[in-house]
């Protein structure tokens, strides 16, 4: 019995020592982490939707801390207490904002900029560094999106009419595709005939150049150069025309997919 009691005491003592060492190790790590971080209070004037306890605090996109608490301070003021790495170069002119973290709706507090020579972050009455968030840009973006949404809703019928016209136009182009190809083929044939005529002129011009009629030679040469220029520009114009028709068709199809099917009246 005494041997069993002795073994039990030894085992229990060993477990207690191991647990104490583990707790002490975690405590040292926590103390070390606390020593490497300092508090930063961020004050939001207005909405701070998406800022939650445990959220990230990023400096130029790199996480440098986390949100420890979020609370109301009056009807229009929200205060977030964060812990920030002491190595983060935060200054008085550092801009505070919000940035989205994926599609979950959680927002990270973003810290941007700050001149190295700028003074440090001002301290609040309790000695905690405090910065005020500048949400004017984010609010401007939200207002713009809100206005765009209202414009789209208010002009839904006009957009549908435009889409209907696009669909009609592209359908007409599709129906007349064979005719357009026929016109293009005729133009190519005409240019081929014109090219043949120019080749014959090229064969005649050397003979004229050896003759005495220099004025006729110069006129034919000018006509030849003008025709070559016209040929190149016309070919470019037709190619651009083909691409434009394709772009219009693709654009109409894309808009149709975005706004949904258009009901015919």
From TrEMBL:
TM region(s), chain numbering: 6-28
Keyword terms: Membrane, Transmembrane, Transmembrane helix
Pfam families: MlaD
InterPro entries, per database record: Mce/MlaD (IPR003399)
Keyword set includes Glycosyltransferase: no
Top-level taxonomic group: Bacteria
Keyword Transmembrane helix: yes
Limits of the Mce/MlaD domain: 41-114
Record-linked PANTHER family: BLL5892 PROTEIN, MCE_MLAD DOMAIN-CONTAINING PROTEIN
Protein name: Phospholipid/cholesterol/gamma-HCH transport system substrate-binding protein
Lineage, broadest ranks: Bacteria, Pseudomonadati, Pseudomonadota, Alphaproteobacteria, Hyphomicrobiales
């Amino acid at each position: 019995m005494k041997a069993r009691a002795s073994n039990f005491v030894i085992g229990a003592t060993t477990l207690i020592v191991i647990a104490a060492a583990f707790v002490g190790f975690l405590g040292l790590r926590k103390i070390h982490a606390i020593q490497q971080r300092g508090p930063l209070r961020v004050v939001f004037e207005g909405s701070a939707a998406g800022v939650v306890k445990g959220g990230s605090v990023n400096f130029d996109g790199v996480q440098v801390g986390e949100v420890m608490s979020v609370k109301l301070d009056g009807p229009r003021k929200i205060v977030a207490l964060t812990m920030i790495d002491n190595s983060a170069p935060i200054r008085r002119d550092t801009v505070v904002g919000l940035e989205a973290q994926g599609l979950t709706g959680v927002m990270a507090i973003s810290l941007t900029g700050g001149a190295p020579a700028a003074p440090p972050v001002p301290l609040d009455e309790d000695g905690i560094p405090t910065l005020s968030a500048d949400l004017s840009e984010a609010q401007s973006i939200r207002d713009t999106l809100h206005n765009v949404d209202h414009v789209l809703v208010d002009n839904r019928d006009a957009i549908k009419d435009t889409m209907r016209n696009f669909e009609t136009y592209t359908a007409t182009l599709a129906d007349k595709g064979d005719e357009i190809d026929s016109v293009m083929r005729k133009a190519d044939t005409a240019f081929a005939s014109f090219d043949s005529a120019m080749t014959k002129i090229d064969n005649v011009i050397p003979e004229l150049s050896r003759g005495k009629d220099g004025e006729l030679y110069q006129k034919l040469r000018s006509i030849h150069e003008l025709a070559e220029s016209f040929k190149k520009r016309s070919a470019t114009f037709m190619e651009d025309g083909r691409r434009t028709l394709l772009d219009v068709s693709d654009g109409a199809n894309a808009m149709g997919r975005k706004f949904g099917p258009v009901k015919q009246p």
